[in-house]
Amino acid sequence: MKEKGFPKDFLWGASTSAYQVEGATYEDGKKASQQDVINKDSYEKFGFATAEIASDQYHHYKEDVAMMKEMGFSAYRFSIAWSRVFPDGTGEVNEKGIQYYRDLIKELKDNGIEPIVTLYHYDCPWTLVEKYGGWLDRQIVKDFEYYARYIINEFKDQVKIWTTINEQSIIVQYWTQKCYIPEELLDGKHDQLRYQINHHMNLAQAIANKLVHELVPGGIVGAPLGYSCIYPLSAKPEDVMAMQNAQALRNDYYTDIYFKGIYNKAAQTYLEEHGLAPIIEEGDMELISDPKAISDFLAINYYASECAKWCEDDGSHTMRWSGVNRSGKKGEIDGFETHPGFYQMCKNPLLDTTDWDWAIDPIGMEYLLRDLYNRYNKPLMITENGLGAYDTLTADGKVHDDYRIEYLRGHIAACKRAIDKGVELLAYCPWSSVDLLSTSNGVKKRYGFVYIDRTDDDPKECKRIRKDSFYWYKKVIESNGEELE
Length: 485
Ligand code: BG6
Description:
Blueprint (H helix, E strand, L loop, with lengths): L10 E5 L2 H4 L12 H13 L10 H15 L3 E5 L2 H4 L9 H16 L3 E7 L5 H7 L6 H16 L6 E5 L2 H6 L1 H4 L13 H24 L4 E7 L3 E3 L4 H24 L4 H9 L10 H6 L7 E5 L4 E4 L28 E2 L3 E4 L15 H15 L3 E5 L17 H19 L4 E4 L21 E4 L9 E4 L1 H11 L7
Bound molecules: 6-O-phosphono-beta-D-glucopyranose.
């Protein structure tokens, strides 16, 4: 009988992404990425911090790694900023930029922490956006290959676990937050471009998979996907069908590419019927389905489950995309994704939510782990999971984030139940190791085990303060996931 619980070599850690923690946007030769531009705009519109300083990890990485070691991390998932290494996207490498990642990776390895590297996390070099629109143009695939080949070659001896392009599913939904999209494309008539961007990313991730398989001895590679399980609002057959449609378009459309090298039929048919399907050129599907381009595992970013209901086709062909809650007040989400005649997303009346309307659902984690493993029979990792919350620094310099502990406890227990039912789970890396710049809500929405003393308006010194969850997670790791109380 297999022993129950987390395996002995299970990787415990946490995640971040470059532009959300590093800061030093224009330092040591780095040039802007599209996120530096998008976040400057969110500062002006909503008062959310810019990416210029973020959590200042560029200057604090040694201190941050020391705290990871103190918590007992065996892994740290982070991304490399393309525009730090190639400030203009291609051409000459920026020596000081690549040196930062050499130093960070060395620091991690010296402290017994396995680096899990993400090649791309929303931050396309701005020069490429100016040149040809970034991911909107197929040229990006070639430029990405140039960048990815360099990085994979550079770190092939130190880095064995690679993840490719962060959250293609979320990029399709929230394309203006995750990519710079010019105003004139926002009239609803250009929505096909969401899926065209995704197709370019499918080609790019296939190339990155091949590169890891060819260049990294013993290396494994997979995509980090924003993934939520989807429930039907009711047991009405129409709602159950809507759930299946949503599952096809929001989830299987990505995982079928990564593991089977095909576009999911139901989703692709829907997109074709509505003029949203990407243009696929000769040779594209051969590349995507090449055995060396198939992922070894799926890296799952899970925060909340979703709910779908039937939506009649009113003949208008008017669809809408996922809403967002900018205010941080429950209930102020500004709408749900709707595809008439296919499905409509909706609130799950049975689940509590965060202040930003994300449903809190640990059972959803167990459900999706078992479902994905049963369907694809590939190992899984959790590369994001966490609670965005307002934290308070008390007068005695502490942060009592018992709500975060409760959230994480439930999700770790769910991972354990999934493992006990046979799921091969390799790692748990919640979001995030330190507080950072949220992609949609500034720095006031916090996720970290370590509090960064700054506000949206004032970066102060970015002093690091251990939260209660820091000490709790340390015990969880020490006990290999047995001690959750
Ligand atoms: C994931 C992203 O979608 O969710 C992260 O990979 C992001 O970059 C995280 O920060 C939490 O979302 P948000 O909008 O609260 O930052």
